[in-house]
Amino acid sequence: MEQAALFKVPLHLEDLLKEGWEGYRIAEEDIEKYEASVDIDEDEISQLWFLPFPNLTHDAWSQVYLGIYNFRTLEDQQKETLYFIITKGVENALEYLRENHDSDIAKNLLKVTTFVLTHFIVEVQKAHLDETREQAPDELPKISSTSKKTKQSKRKENQKWNWNAEKIGTTLDWVLKLLDKCFSPQETPYEIDDKEFISLFARVCYVLIEDHSICKNRELKEVIFAILKVVFETLHYRPSAIAALLHLVRKYEHAAPFVAELIHYLDVNFLKGSLGAEVIREISQYDPVELSKAPTNSKNIATFLCELTDRSSAGIKENLSLLVDQLDCESYFVRNSIVHALGRYLLFLSSETKSEANEQVENAAQLRSSLFDILLKRVDDVHAFSRSKVLQVWQTLVDNKVVPQTLFPLLMQQVVARLRDKSSIVRKNSIALFESLLSNNPFGPSLVLAIFENKLKSYQGDDSRSQRLSESSQLSDCNASIDKEKAMDFYQCAVNFIVKVSEAIQILSTLVWSRSTLDVQEAISCIVTARQFEVDNSDTAVRSMLGLVFSRDASIRSSVIEAFIRLFVGDNEKDSLRRSMDITRGVVHLVSGATVGEVACIQKLLEELASRKLIDSRTIQMLWDIVFEKMPGVQKKQKKPSLLVLALVAPSLQVLISEQLTETLLERMKLWIREECELCSFAFGILQHSPIALKNKKVLREFGSEILNSLNFKERKIEQFERFLTCRLCVLEEFSRTIYSCDEEPSTTAAFVLMSLYDQLHLSLFENSTNEDAMEDDEVENLLEPYALNTLCILASLFYFAGHVALNELSLWESFIRRYRESVANKSSQVEVGTDTTDTEEIIPQEQEDSNANERHLDALLSHAKQEIISKQGVIGKLVSLAVGVILQRQFYPMIKACAISYITKLMCVDESFCEQHLKVVFTVLASDAPAAIRADIIIALCDLAVRYPNLIEPWSSQIFRCLQDSSVEVRRNTIMCITFLVLNDMMKIRGQVSEIVLCLVDSDSQVSNMCHSFFFEVSNKSKGFVYNILPEIISSLSSMKDLSEEHFKTIMSFLFSFIDKERHTEGLVERICQRFRLSEDASCWRNLAYCLSLLSYSERTIGKLANMLKYYGDKLHDAVVFQTFCNILSKARKFSKTEFRAFLDDFEDKLVECQQKQKDQEENEQVTENNESADIEKTPKEDKRKKVKKQVRIVEETSEEEQDEEEQKEPQEEFIKECPVPITDDYTSSEQLSQQVKRLSLRQVLRQRK
User: Fold this and answer.
1) Which residue ranges are recorded for the region named Disordered (predicted)?
2) In the prediction, which pLDDT does 784 show?
């Protein structure tokens, strides 16, 4: 290599090992001599510092080349030496080029120097990438616990060859300088048109882009951009560079944003947008089939297209038709990216049309319209991620105000459809689009349907009138007609939009109870937005999410509370006065017309608002001003909800009412108790939590007298009786609570009111009698006659008030005993702290004896108190026989009977023996044809009794479960609610009543169905295997129900099987369901079992289990439905199966077909034999037939008499069961009924003996 030979750049590094490279070829002897070594002495190295590569000796050239070629096998010191030699040689070459102006020598020198430097970078970078990819996380160096080891490890790391960002930057700077020597316009460039030479520079950049850490380095990124700028300016190399960059994009995920930024940089600064268009054209020409076969490639291409269009949308216009054709690609990644590109192009069009001429604007409008149509159709994509992406694009367009008003109704229609989507991500994006459409709607801040309909009708009426009038001026009339058409189109779009918004809100009201937390939170936000726009049914939707304040999920509770704060206060910060007014107005509106359940939820909400100090003294004062009618401009109907709000917030606020307000309230209550007793009950609720306000002991007795005087119904109409009595009972209930929470001697005051009621009842019953003695038992029969309504009102009040007093007395005694036990426990703990350890052995036994004696004494005291409460000699217990007589009387006023049942059940809560004695009475009324309201109240009472005495209620649990199929919706609601409470608190066990519960899943009432769904959700969260354990029993019981439709069966099973998520549970159900095929002979039962099997999620193991159970269901495959169901199971299994498992599936399918054909052949043979037998029977003589007929007639005559007797005896028995389904003791039955029952029992014994 003494004289520089002409160097031709090879395609690959290893090409120099072949023949044909004169002067630069590496022979075999050179490889053997210098393999894996760079052994150059110091003198020769010093010469290399001043000589360029073409002047190297052949030995030095061979060592440099082989050092690059075998870089991976070199030691760290040799790598460092090679790096030093190459960088120094490049420096010497650049110095040589500054002095030497011979173009041939300079070009040759540039080629050789660039070849060595670029291949060195490529080989080093490849070795570095391979090392990082192959190194597992476990093989990474760990930090040692001792300081000595860390120092040693640091030394070793310093000694290692390190290809870091500094060295990469240094080498890239040399590459850039060599590139400038070739193509820089500032100096005299050595224009080298060799394509392979230009590829050397590009190849370095491509290899570096493969490293994600280099792509994140800003300084290295700028150098790479500068190198590739020169490469792309060389036109003949541009197609190859585009192909290479797209190859990087397909292969490496991190390369997509980097390459997109590179193309945008080149287009903006140098190429004027041409490169982006070429890249998009290249992507548009990809084969969709090939893209779908490689999901990773298609995903990376899609990411790159999104990144590129985010930076610039100019290149889309030229390739728009090609991109639209790719929407049919099977890869949803590609479809998503194209949809994203179309959305970006629409944004680009909207900003571009503002500065264009009229013709261009019209063309752009047509193009926008066609693109909008395409995006509307893409909402119905088959893939969930594609649907969600389209919704995201639409949201971006709406937020940027690109969508015309005519598309708002169509978009809202698509939102309504997507809110019902099965995919949660689609629902999430549809909810976001719904909120965006509302926030950016062009129809105004108030979307009240009636207003827009009236406007539309007025314009339609004006249009019809204008047609009748003569046309005076054509120009003015034309302009007016155009304006009217625009106005009519505007209001028509608004009406259509609002109608669709109302439909969407109905769906959102159901989504707030979704299992997905994300769905719930998004739905809550949308409902609040709709309420702020005053949509018609948004108020109902707001009330539907009140129950979420009791959610177990803290995030949902927080979202609901924040939503109501946003409704009451708004998003903007306000002063305290304005905020208090808004909160007062919002809370009063929310309470108005609320149900009992909603009131409980509002109370919880008010507690949270009070804890956040949003309800302050100013808000309370405003509410009192509304109650006392001091605030101007307040309607009278707001007085009741305002007082209710005060009653609800009273437990949360310690200071609610002052002495002055107390006096004013007491005066108003004396007026309210006559005409507005509901306000009086709310006021009592406030006073319960302000006991200091009632300092005077005579106040409660005075109110008791006022309440008793208000019970007079003589001067009122008969139609007002039910409402009148209901209001008085509510007042009595709150009054009893107020007595026991505020009075120092509550028992005395309650006894005074009870005795006053007794006196009023006596006066009403025996108005002309002078006998004022206590009522006797024979008065019961007189009471069962029709009475005046005034007497009934007093009687109901007596029952109701006595029951509440009994419970309050019990609660008073239990709280007293509980406080006493706590005080004893505190004293004993203090004594233990003060005593020495030496005396503990003597003190502990004595303390135990004293504590046991105290416990026995307290138990005896509580038992004695219970007996005193229910004693017939007491004030409360003397009504027991009267109440039982009223309950068992069939023809009696329902409200009086309800009060009597309330009284009896409350006394049953007091004492266990009393409860056991009267349970039969309660269940008799429950099973009778009593009014639905009474039976619903009994269910609630039984729930309370089950909490207190679970062992007593357990034998009667079947009667409670039977109410799930009651004809009354109210009874079914209360029953499922109570069962849910009892089961979740382990106070009731579900044994044989599972089928009665699951039937509520398809109940006609949506509230019952929703509560049943909630029951299974809560129970499954508490016990994971609950549904798995009861499923076989449910399948058997439902399959045997002939009146259950197939649709309802599938609905129930699809819901229950959604809880089966473990493979071992799936395997167990496969075995247990398959075994049930042999136990049934009904084809409908086989189909139900097969459908249940199709609901399971199968794996390779469970499919194998299903194949092993073929002997149980193989003979049922002749049924077409059963066979098709098993085929569907196999088709689903093929989707997740691996290649080696598909052979097993094919074998299994062949066995199914074989079993089906075998059963069909067997049926055909049986049919042939039956036809032959029937033909033989026809040939038998007629005399044999007559003999058989005579024998059958003789048998029928012998058995008909006995069967007739049995049927006659069964009929009255069934009537008796319907009349009295629960056996009653002789305390409440007549002797005639008992004698009839005995007669029926004797008849049964006679019939059994005859049999």
Assistant:
1) 132-158, 1158-1235
2) 35
CA distance 699 to 704: 9
Query: Are the C-beta atoms of 391 and 430 separated by less than 8 Å?
Result: yes
**Residue 307 token pair:** 């990144």
**Predicted pLDDT of residue 1195:** 38
- The DSSP secondary-structure symbol of 271 reads I
Q: Assign 473 to helix, strand or coil.
A: coil
Is 672 buried (19+), middle (13-18) or exposed (0-12) by CB count in 10 A?
buried
DSSP one-letter string for 339-394: HHHHHHHHHHHHHHGGGS-HHHHHHHHHHHHHHHHHHHHHTT-SSHHHHHHHHHHH
Confidence (pLDDT) at 879: 87
Distance of alpha carbon 17 from its chain centroid, rounded? 67
Q: Which residue has the tokens 């007042």?
A: 731
Whose structure tokens read 């509410």? Answer: 623
Residue 1098 Rama label (left phi>0; alpha psi -120 to 50; beta): beta
Give helix then strand counts, H and E, for the chain.
57, 0
908 and 914 in contact (C-beta within 8 Å)? yes
Q: How far apart are CA 634 and CA 1246, in angstroms?
A: 80
Answer with the residue of higher pLDDT: 202 or 375: 375
Residue owning tokens 């800003």: 218
Count of residues making up the chain: 1251
pTM for the model stands at 0.73
Nearest in space to 230 (alpha carbons), one of 177, 165, 305, 304? 177
Please say if the pLDDT value at position 1068 is more than 60.
yes
Alpha carbon distance 1210, 385 (integer Å) = 66
Cα–Cα distance measured from residue 237 to residue 239, given in angstroms and rounded to the nearest whole number: 6
Distance CA(1096)–CA(1126), nearest Å, equals: 12
Give the burial class of 310: count Cβ atoms within 10 A of its Cβ; 0-12 exposed, 13-18 middle, 19 or more buried: middle
| Cβ contacts of 621-627, under 8 Å, gap ≥ 24 | 622/580, 622/581, 622/584, 623/584, 623/588, 624/661, 626/584, 626/588
Instruction: Indicate whether 920 pLDDT > 70.
Output: yes
| 1168 pLDDT tier (thresholds 50, 70, 90) | low
- Cα–Cα separations (whole angstroms), residue 658 to 618, 621, 647, 651: 14, 11, 15, 15
CA distances in angstroms from 443 to 437, 529, 531, listed in the order given: 11, 15, 16
Structure tokens given for 838: 């030496």
Taking the C-alpha atoms of residue 224 and residue 204, their distance in angstroms, rounded to an integer, is 9
Confidence at residue 1177, expressed as pLDDT on a 0 to 100 scale: 54
Of 978, 937, 948, 987, the residue nearest 960 (C-alpha): 978
What pLDDT is stored for residue 1213 in this prediction?
38
Structure-token pair, residue 814: 């239990």
Amino acid found at 954: E
For the segment 763-806, what is each residue's pLDDT rounded down to a tens digit? 877 653 443 344 444 443 443 343 467 788 888 889 999 999 99
- Three-state secondary structure readout of 201-268: HHHHHHHHHCCHHHHHCHHHHHHHHHHHHHHHHCHHHHHHHHHHHHHHHHHCCCHHHHHHHHHHHHHH
Q: Which residue has the higher pLDDT, 262 or 7?
A: 262
Cβ(761)–Cβ(795) below 8 Å: yes
Q: What percent of the chain has pLDDT over 70?
A: 77
Whose tokens are 């290249």? That residue is 282
**CA separation for the pair 668, 655 (Å, rounded):** 20
Distance, CA of 838 to chain centre: 63
User: Under a CB-based contact definition with an 8 Å cutoff, are residues 724 and 741 in contact?
Assistant: no
| 921 in Cβ contact with 887 (< 8 Å) | yes
User: Which runs of consecutive H residues, i.e. helices, occur in 1180-1230?
Assistant: 1182-1219
Secondary structure string (H, E, C) spanning 586-625:
HHHHHHCCCCHHHHHHHHHHHHHHHHCCCCCHHHHHHHHH
